């Protein structure tokens, strides 16, 4: 497993992000629900952990927690949304108590299917299109819960989602072209200065 995967699993199991918020009191906490939708959760006994099917199966822990129940937006959206709402409420209460000045920002990430090719032409990937449309509907349902919370700012993302086939993280439905990402992050800097 790579370093990022190890860190992701460690943070999920230890919940150390909560202690880090208390310690560092960040100005901004940027949330997107991409992994919440694509991974969902595993319920093991009375615990919930992220069903990180990229990295969790590579751990010894994964074999020790069976049997477990998978809950996600694909197999049980009502239960998943109920759990998300409850736990997001607890998370926001923690932020309010431990880091009152942190601004919660929702980045409403959406998958794309239009690809900027090396010859600067845009091509529609039909396989990506079907997946993107379905996943984007689920992302929107999860995002609505966070949007309704008091004091959460939602970024305004243009519908233009051009993917980069040469992206440094690899080519997939969530790797936007760098010029679009740059504009996106520049707007965060401009719009959220304290």
Q: Which sequence of SSEs, written as H and E, runs from N to C?
A: HHEHEEHEHEEEHEEH
How would you write the strand order of the largest sheet? 1-5-8
Main sheet?
Answer: 3 strands, parallel
What is the number of beta strands?
A: 9
Distance between the termini: 39 Å
Low-confidence segments, given as residue ranges, are 173-177
Instruction: Give the mean pLDDT.
Output: 85
**How much helical structure, as a percent, in the residues?**
40-55%
In DSSP terms (H or I, runs of 4 or more residues), the helix count works out at: 7
* Percent of residues in beta strands: 15-25%
User: What is the radius of gyration computed over CA atoms, rounded to a whole number of angstroms?
Assistant: 18 Å
In terms of structural class, how would the helical and strand content be classed?
alpha/beta
Overall form: globular
Describe the structure.
The structure is a single chain. By secondary structure, the protein is an alpha/beta fold. The chain contains seven helices and nine strands, in the order H-H-E-H-E-E-H-E-H-E-E-E-H-E-E-H. It has helices at residues 3-14, 16-24, 34-39, 60-64, 77-98, 126-147, 178-191, and strands at 28-31, 41-44, 47-50, 69-71, 103-106, 114-116, 122-124, 152-154, 162-164. It has a three-stranded parallel sheet, covered by helices on one side. A three-stranded antiparallel sheet has the order 3-2-4. A three-stranded mixed sheet has the order 7-6-9. Strand 2 (41-44) and strand 3 form a beta hairpin. The chain is globular and about 50 Å long. Residues 173-177 have low confidence and may be disordered.
